[in-house]
User: Fold this.
Amino acid sequence: MAEARPGPAAGAQLNGLPDHSPLLQPSLAELRRRAGEAGARPARRPLSDAFLLRFLRARDFDLDLAWQLLKNYYKWREECPEVSADLHPRSILGLLKAGYVGVLRARDPTGSKVLIYRIDSYAWGQLQTKFTSAFPRHSSSGIRW
Assistant:
């Protein structure tokens, strides 16, 4: 079994390797094994190396954290099909070109990138209604701050 927590230095070293490096294979195999045992293998998204590497790199090759992120991804896809059903660049290209979505230059205090939505008050009312009905567990405005 691959080591679950390689440590920050090892994670940074692994993150610096190209996708096809043989040193990444043990982590990929372990994450694929965990996903296979849990039955997380939908037909629309096969467990390719490139797909799994996104989760491993996002968590600096900490297998436990990458596994939790992958489980959360599948849970989100299942719970929010109206948002995640057609989620690729071409489906939101119009929003990007119109400037409705942007990314702040600075990261938040935890190091995450911050995605912003630029919407006017009319669109905000419509969006607020949709979010409140789609995500009732969040704040009254439908968005968790």
